[in-house]
Design brief:
2 domains, 4-stranded antiparallel sheet, 24% helix, alpha/beta, 4-stranded parallel sheet, 8 helices, Immunoglobulin-like
Length: 251
């Protein structure tokens, strides 16, 4: 696992397949996650070496497809069990199956139950995102299945109304544009949203969650050669594009 993570982060892989751990990491921003299922919580609790030794950067947590119908309503409590095992700021993603290999198409109601709970947990920082499995099958849905699932309608009720976008200008304290910079966007205190290259015009755009129970700002942090790293809080507005500026001081 140490070799896998080192290779993922861009350390040199020798011809014989071994990894030079003393080499520079060329992609240090890449993260290593593991998939964990609801029936593996006890095993995870007994053996946390991958988490404690910081070999894993997060967990993708799933209720197994065949159990999705019966225990979808338990997701929030299951995530609470998982949160009791991992560090407070450890990223956890949830997910729901539209189709599963052993049973085929699942049912819409349990899936949307998982989605709604995940949206609420994302809202207050308990999970960092939701995966849909598998988006590639949507194109093979027949008309009756598409109508039964009504993905656009469901997302319009529970998801889209709480999204906004921002255009962020990156400048010097003298109002000069800065290109060739990298921006990282975090929702709340710990949820990584995106990593963006600042464009030649000295700006970038991102989209994100506004906040359902209460508005929660995103933190934008920008790094550029020759400048001090700078941050700014950006509060998105539902259905709108807001504008913000991050000012950087020269070293």
């Amino acid at each position: 696992m140490r070799d896998i993570k080192a290779a993922l982060q861009g350390k040199t892989v020798r011809v014989d397949g071994t990894v030079d751990h003393s080499s520079d990491a060329t992609t240090p921003h890449l993260k290593l996650f593991a998939v964990t299922y609801h029936n593996q919580l006890q095993s995870l609790g007994k053996s946390k070496v991958l988490i404690d030794d910081k070999l894993l950067d997060g967990i993708s947590f799933w209720i197994g497809g065949p159990a999705q119908r019966e225990i979808s309503s338990n997701l929030t409590s299951l995530v609470a069990e998982l949160r009791a095992i991992v560090p407070r700021d450890f990223p956890v993603f949830t997910g729901g199956y539209i189709t599963y290999s052993s049973i085929g198409w699942t049912e819409p109601a349990p899936f949307y139950d998982l989605l709604r709970q995940s949206v609420d947990m994302y809202d207050d920082g308990r999970v960092q995102g939701f995966f849909l499995f598998a988006g590639s099958v949507l194109k093979s849905m027949n008309s009756s299945l598409w109508q039964e699932w009504d993905l656009p309608g469901q997302l319009e009720m529970d998801y889209f109304p709480h999204l906004g976008t921002a255009t962020v200008a990156v400048t010097t304290t003298e109002q000069q544009k800065i290109a060739n910079a990298t921006a990282t966007v975090v929702y709340g205190s710990a949820t990584h949203v995106t990593r963006k290259a600042v464009g030649a015009d000295g700006s970038f755009t991102f989209g994100g969650w506004v906040g359902k129970k209460a508005k929660t700002p995103h933190t934008v942090t920008v790094a550029a050669a020759g400048f001090r790293t700078a941050s700014a809080a950006v509060q998105l507005e539902a259905g709108k594009t807001v504008r913000a500026t991050v000012k950087m001081q020269r070293l």
